[in-house]
Amino acid sequence: MKRIAVLVSGGGTNLQALIDAIKNNYITEGYIEIVFSNKKDAYGLERAIKSGIKTMFLDPKEFKSREEYDEYLSGKMNSFNIDLICLAGYMRILTEKFLDKFKGKIMNIHPALLPSFGGPGMYGLNVHKAVIESGVKITGCTVHFVNKGVDTGPIIIQKCVAVDDNDTPETLQKKILEYEHKAYPEAVKLFTENRLKIVDKRVRII
Ligand code: GRF
Prior knowledge:
By secondary structure, this protein is of the alpha/beta class.
């Protein structure tokens, strides 16, 4: 059984999708050991508590630097023997040292088809505004492993969503979230079944 940690900063609907996928026995080879948040009032923490999952709020103000914060977080990951770290709306860039330690074990979900519409500043409604302004007809979501760049890691799963003429950033966000809630459990299921193999920049599903 793989032990999963989920990192949230906000609403946590993707966390909920993972919780449900485990409850419904879609994911059978892993479980969520703990949910961390850098925000005290993140609703994701409530969702975890409601499902009987351990939670931990780590207050950035209590650490001297990002390095110290991530060092502490990394210690926690080790003490809970975490196999997979899922970023689910986690609004903090992880330090290089942390990323090195957990290489190939950190996933993220992004609300666009990477490598388009990713990178610094591309979060929340900014992504969907940029998508609409660009005139693309198709957008979607991407689950990827996290590397040292922002939104540049090996891609695991993508799902497409059509951009309609009357879409607003808000309607697109809502439509895409539904697909995110399918894509993230799929990727986590594959990981927990040892079916993901990273070969250079590509992820093979074996
Ligand atoms: C999602 O749109 C996800 O793609 C992005 O942050 C948002 C998190 O939403 N990384 P939620 O907290 O899971 O509801």
